[in-house]
Write a structure and sequence with these properties.
It is a single chain. With 715 residues, the chain is α+β, with helices and mostly antiparallel strands. The strands form nine sheets. An eight-stranded parallel beta sheet has the order 28-27-26-25-24-31-30-29. Helix 1 (307-319) crosses helix 2 (334-343). The protein starts with a strand and ends with a strand.
């Protein structure tokens, strides 16, 4: 394989010219591939059409009579058309889908590759036409950032008479002594005939026997798909990092033609089974609680992501006791999936649909969703497919006008072509092509009795007026408990820590600076002001402290209530958002430079495998109002806990201890939440009371505090 990394140039265009462009260097700019054209200073604000050019030599004398050559563009935003030595190789759409064409008869000693590429800005945000998800419309990206470019490598592959263009292996069933695996191969044969397929499984992360399988197949000339079953003996299972070891196999797949190797592919797979039973997850037959977060593209310039950068994000997630990341409305860099496999972190994989689309995209959406399943289906980390994120009419989430809210309500409770037609068909298509994983029609469908069963829930009570207050959220949860089954979005925005904030904002935030943060760096300042007086803070440090404290409070508010409902009915807790994809003020708990906020450490505590906590009404209380503070404990680990020490103490505004309890407790493995004790008191003075809870003699000790605001009766 030859990777074309050198001698790339790019030229901005108003219109394509059918592959005919000036041969001189005038008007061309040097380009890095992989990359995005907006990384080039002269094209920082360009959107739409460009043409890339690469000149490269090729040693024709090294080729045998039966060698075939294939040009492969692994990823480009968004619609591409390559030309090799003046020959049109045909158009292609789909930013994450490789474009591969045979070029055996086109190669010369000196070659010119042109790639026309079109990635316009989406003008109609309620009828988008490109399947790019968050890259073209999101409240967590700079709205002026266009993703255009060849973002994955361009390669020249060689093969014998039969080319293996794609190979996939996934687990079908797992028994006591063997696993049944299904392989899927895309082949292109120069002529009809017999071939031999040879599969070799080598343990990658453990010591075990090498297992080999061969099959003889008859192929026809041209492109075709082959699939079949393999029986792997005594498989070592893949587990998440918190349940076991993510053991993996190296798999080599060879295609033999006339007893000679014609082509091959290498995979890394894990053997595992995953189920959702009424939204309760099971891995290899064992029930567990999903605790995770939403994962954006690791960088707004996704071409810059590396395996090492992905591993940093995954380690931060694991250190926060997370076992799942939701790949939010995009297909990520290939290295992210291999890193997740090795890290033992589950992935909820969204198809790149975000908010509303034009009905005309349906045929291409069906083609691309099939491609996504085939492209990513070998990864054991991917356990759930989701077709669409929030198929509701959203142009700007900061728009809380009455019209915008009414439009959202109408879509949620009425007919939606995106949800009820397109997403339904996409779900059925995915289930046909991969029956081993659950498929979700659209994320964020609230369960409404007698109207809609719902899917996973998004709950932004305490942030968006469309949802309302936290008290309203508690009422919703009591009346419609199905919306607690699997929650995949909640949270609040916060500023990064001071050092990181000063890298993209001034220390004194005047109106102009705030307006810039709102326009380019995600800040929803008006909405934040509904909940905390951040603009009244004397300096940026206090703004940061206020915002991170409120974010910590909101995240713990939801996590506590969902952990209280563990398995009754909650199966998953997935807040929004893990990291910033660019310098911004977002819902993340880790900033763009991977510096954790204080809210990260608060979430780390709230996600502890052994956890003690309280749940009470989030409003303020009046003097003389009886207040009850239940004390709960739970264990998510597969090992029981014996002799843990739990203590809870209540202090008045002066710090005087009013009540205190101490318990030595046992918690069975993966137990439901237990009520340990209750503190009851009636406040007699105004101020802020503090409930402190500690859990010790456990692998991850917990210590945190709740505040209770008590007001005068007429306040």
């Amino acid at each position: 394989m030859l990777t074309l990394t050198d001698n790339w140039q790019v030229r901005p265009l108003d219109e394509f010219q059918l592959g005919i462009y000036p041969r001189s260097d005038e008007g061309w700019l040097p380009a890095n591939i992989p990359g995005h054209w907006q990384q080039i200073p002269e094209l920082e604000h360009h959107a739409g059409k460009v043409v890339y050019r690469c000149r490269f030599p090729f040693a024709l004398a090294d080729a045998s009579a039966h060698t075939r050559y294939w040009l492969r563009i692994n990823g480009a935003f968004y619609a591409s058309r390559p030309y090799l030595n003046g020959v049109d190789l045909g158009g292609h759409t789909g930013y994450f889908i490789p474009c591969e064409r045979e070029v055996t008869r086109l190669l010369q000693e000196s070659n010119t590759l042109l790639v026309e590429l079109d990635c316009p800005d989406e003008r109609d945000k309620l009828g988008k036409r490109m399947i790019t998800g968050v890259f073209s419309h999101w409240d967590c990206f700079d709205p002026k950032a266009n993703p255009g470019g060849i973002w994955l490598p361009v390669e020249l592959h060689s093969s014998g008479p039969v080319r293996l263009q794609h190979a996939g292996v996934r687990t079908e069933t797992v028994g006591p002594t063997f696993a049944q695996l299904r392989f899927q191969l895309d082949l292109d044969a120069a002529a009809a005939g017999l071939i031999t397929l040879r599969f070799t499984f080598v343990p990658r992360t453990f010591t075990g026997a090498i297992q080999s399988f061969t099959q003889t197949r008859r192929v026809r000339a041209g492109h075709q798909e082959l699939n079949g079953l393999l029986k792997l003996e005594d498989p070592q299972l893949w587990w998440t990092h918190d349940l076991g070891r993510p053991d993996l196999y190296d798999v080599q797949i060879e295609v033999l033609h006339a007893d000679e190797r014609s082509d091959s592919a290498d995979l890394v797979i894990g053997v595992r089974q995953f189920e959702l039973r009424d939204w309760i997850p099971y891995l290899n037959g064992e029930r567990f609680l999903v605790k995770g977060n939403n994962y954006p593209p690791g960088d707004i310039r996704i071409a810059t992501m590396t395996r090492e950068r992905c591993e940093i994000d995954l380690e931060l997630a694991k250190a926060c006791h997370m076992n799942l990341l939701r790949v939010h409305a995009h297909v990520d860099h290939p290295v992210f999936y291999t890193a997740a496999d090795a890290a033992g972190v589950l992935l909820w994989q969204d198809f790149p649909l975000q908010w509303l689309y034009d009905p005309g995209i349906l045929p291409d959406a069906l083609r691309q969703v099939r491609a996504m399943v085939r492209l990513l289906g070998s990864h054991p980390s991917i356990v759930i497919w989701c077709m669409h994120n929030e198929s509701v009419p959203v142009e700007d989430t900061a728009d809380e006008s009455l019209f915008a809210r009414l439009r959202t309500y109408q879509n949620a409770f009425g007919f939606s072509w995106n949800r009820d037609v397109m997403d339904t068909q996409l779900k059925a298509e995915v289930e046909r092509h991969d029956p081993t994983r659950p498929a979700v029609r659209s994320s964020g469908e609230m369960a409404v009795p007698r109207l809609r069963e719902g899917t996973d829930a998004h709950v932004y009570f305490g942030w968006y007026s469309t949802y309302g207050t936290l008290e309203m959220g508690d009422v919703m949860q009591q009346r419609f408990p199905a919306n607690l089954r699997f929650v995949t979005e909640f949270g609040a925005q916060s500023f990064p820590n001071l050092e990181s904030s000063l890298r993209f904002m001034p220390e004194q935030l005047d109106d102009a600076a705030i307006e810039h943060l709102e326009a380019r760096h995600g800040l929803q300042g008006t909405i934040m002001g509904h909940w905390i007086p951040w603009r009244e803070a004397p300096d940026l440090s206090e703004m940061i402290r206020h915002s991170q404290a409120y974010q910590s409070f909101i995240n713990r508010h939801y996590i506590d209530r969902l952990r209280l409902a563990k398995y009754q009915p909650t199966g998953g807790i997935v807040p929004f958002l893990l990291v910033d994809p660019y310098p911004a003020v977002l819902w993340s708990v880790i900033d763009y430079w991977r510096v954790p906020k204080s809210s990260y450490y608060a979430m780390q505590t709230a996600f502890s495998p052994q956890y003690a906590f309280s749940v009470f009404a989030p409003d303020s209380y009046a003097i003389g109002t009886p207040i009850e503070l239940p004390i709960y404990a739970v264990n998510d680990a597969r090992q029981p806990v014996r002799g843990a020490r739990l203590s809870a103490g209540l202090a008045d505004p002066a710090g005087t201890i009013l009540a205190e309890v101490n318990h030595r407790i046992d918690l069975s493995a993966d137990c439901a939440t237990q009520t340990i004790d209750r503190l009851r008191f009636t406040p007699t003075r105004p101020g802020q009371y503090t409930l402190t809870i500690t859990l010790s003699a456990v692998p991850h000790p917990v210590e945190h505090a709740y505040t209770i605001d008590v007001l005068m009766p007429d306040a």
